[in-house]
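Morning, I've got a small favour to ask if you have a moment. I've been staring at a protein lately and its backbone has me curious. You're getting the sequence in one-letter code plus the fold written as tokens. I've dropped the whole record in just underneath, so have a look:
=====
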Amino acid sequence: MTVPRWLDDDQQRAWRSYLRMQSRLGAELNRRLQAASGLSLADYDVLVHLTDAPEGRLRPYELQRALEWEQSRLSHHLSRMQRRGLVERRECAEDGRGAFVVLTEAGRRAITAAAPGHVQAVRELFVDALGPGQVETLGRLSARVLARLDAAAGG
């Protein structure tokens, strides 16, 4: 049995501060987005991936992978979005078994209306709190941690 490599005080402070920032930032962005547009941050994430996809459609497994959500969470969330008319599920004509999650016109209108306010909130709460060099450093640090996560996952 190996002895744990405990975090020192500085590492512990940094880690806990990061977790608190991530939690509070996500909660505040979600609150503002819902108040302004009626979309949750999760809705917005789904709509962003669909607007970035060719023809505004993705296979559910592609969306699941992009969002890094559990299959059941995605399925339940898509059902709620479908009831609100933001997305729809369409059968795949090519193979008959699969389906696509498709952005509807209402979904496109919703994200188009929500995006300016959301970007403003991201800028106000996050980007503008950092200097240009810090934004660049954060990008490099994030890429480094993501590469380690990819390696650990075998991807």
About this structure: The chain has a mean pLDDT of 94. The chain is about 65% helix and 10% strand. The radius of gyration is 19 Å.
